[in-house]
């Protein structure tokens, strides 16, 4: 298969488009993804040769030659996606066309001495349940931290207490499968490019709010990872010299104000009940705060204050990277109604004049979304012959071609 630029997701974007909207002609694919007809002809020929696409019926034409429609062979492969959090794992089984075949949740303690063995055992237990068709191409793992190289998978994640953790190496030895490891927000951006609103945009920004705050930049259809895989640590942009202490150890980070812990602390400062911090989870505290914010008062003020800070910081990021659209994701979007007004007002006020009409799209969310992003890491690699997946990508392609033939 012909090589591509680093991280190019265009081939998988074609697959995702067909999986989402159904069969299309080559002309329609070119129009939807803003590609040249020649590029679409070449790429779809490669995909058909790999058993990913098939020619279907002719589309009726009002005049001229009917167009041949192409359809996705969704059963060509599947991937297991794993989202690692500070207290549990979420795992999903996803087909090549993005259809979720199953989901699981497992308890997890990243601070335990044998945590990587525990992680491997949890994945292995799920793999035993999904054995069969479509063929399994590999495992993608999303983590709340930096990963210098997806194919190596060494993780630095302060929120998990991990420093230079050999996640990829240990899992590959345990599972005997290709394993790709990536920052969870970057993984979401890959999934958004393939299956979400980012499908028809080559330059967009993914913003996540919830327990933490993150961002991923997609430029020219590729997720920007930075020199050491740590691009997108938006939550650690300093926004105040004398602000609260962040989980990273610094003071005044964006996340310390607008992450779940920051919101809960702001609520307590206003005398609002959030439960015992030692016994009530941050998520439960924020859900309670959201219920209180339905009525005017201090709970609504907590969200408005955080949204103002977030809007200002987001404007700065938009001014720097100039995306076509901002996509907001994460568990925090459940309370977006309380963020929206202040966020939008502040964002527009701080954007450069030519960018004040930028679209902000807020997507629905559930706990499996993070894991779907992790699965997208694997589902993208068969079509990135020279990209970030490295040797693991070669192994994924070998499994895919072997299944197709």
From TrEMBL:
Keyword Kinase present in the record's keywords: the answer is: yes
Give a single Pfam family match: HTH_IclR
Q: Which UniProt keywords apply?
A: Kinase, Transferase
Q: Which GO terms describe its molecular function?
A: DNA binding; kinase activity
UniProt GO BP:
regulation of DNA-templated transcription
> SUPFAM superfamilies given for it?
Actin-like ATPase domain (SSF53067), Winged helix' DNA-binding domain (SSF46785)
Give yes or no: UniProt keyword Magnesium: no
Q: Can you tell me which family this protein belongs to?
A: Belongs to the ROK (NagC/XylR) family.
Name this protein carries in UniProt: Putative NBD/HSP70 family sugar kinase
According to its UniProt entry, this protein's organism is Nonomuraea endophytica
């Amino acid at each position: 298969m012909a090589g591509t630029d680093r991280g190019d997701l265009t081939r998988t974007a074609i697959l995702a488009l067909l999986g989402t909207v159904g069969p299309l002609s080559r002309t329609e694919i070119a129009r939807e993804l803003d590609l040249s007809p020649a590029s679409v002809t070449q790429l779809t020929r490669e995909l058909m040769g790999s058993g990913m696409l098939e020619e279907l019926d002719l589309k009726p034409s009002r005049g001229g030659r009917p167009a041949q429609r192409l359809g996705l062979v969704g059963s060509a492969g599947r991937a297991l996606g794993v989202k690692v959090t500070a207290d549990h794992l979420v795992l999903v089984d996803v087909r090549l066309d993005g259809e979720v075949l199953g989901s699981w949740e497992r308890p997890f303690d990243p601070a335990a001495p044998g945590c990587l063995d525990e992680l491997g055992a949890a994945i292995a237990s799920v793999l035993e349940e999904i054995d069969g068709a479509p063929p399994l191409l590999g495992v993608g793992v999303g983590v709340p931290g930096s990963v210098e190289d997806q194919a190596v998978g060494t993780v630095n994640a302060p929120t998990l207490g991990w420093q230079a953790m050999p996640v990829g190496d240990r899992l590959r030895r345990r599972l005997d499968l290709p394993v790709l490891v990536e920052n969870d927000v970057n993984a979401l951006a890959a999934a958004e490019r393939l299956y979400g609103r980012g499908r028809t945009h080559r330059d967009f920004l993914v913003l996540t709010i919830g327990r933490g705050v993150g961002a991923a930049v997609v430029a020219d259809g590729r997720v920007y990872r930075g020199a050491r895989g740590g691009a997108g640590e938006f939550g650690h942009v300093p926004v105040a010299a004398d602000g609260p202490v962040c989980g990273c150890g610094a003071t005044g980070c964006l996340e310390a104000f607008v992450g779940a812990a920051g919101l809960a602390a702001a609520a307590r400062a206003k005398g609002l009940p959030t439960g015992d911090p030692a016994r009530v989870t941050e998520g439960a505290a924020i859900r309670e705060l959201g219920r209180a914010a339905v009525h005017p008062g201090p709970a609504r003020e907590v969200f408005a204050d955080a949204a103002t800070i977030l809007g200002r910081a987001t404007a700065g990021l938009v001014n720097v990277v100039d995306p076509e659209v901002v996509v907001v994701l994460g568990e925090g979007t459940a309370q977006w109604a309380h963020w929206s007004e202040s966020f939008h007002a502040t964002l527009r006020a701080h954007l450069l004049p030519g960018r004040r009409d930028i679209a902000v799209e807020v997507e629905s969310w559930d706990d499996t979304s993070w894991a779907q992003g992790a699965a997208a890491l694997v589902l993208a690699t068969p079509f990135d012959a020279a990209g970030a997946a490295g040797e693991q990508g070669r192994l994924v392609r070998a499994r895919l071609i072997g299944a197709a033939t």
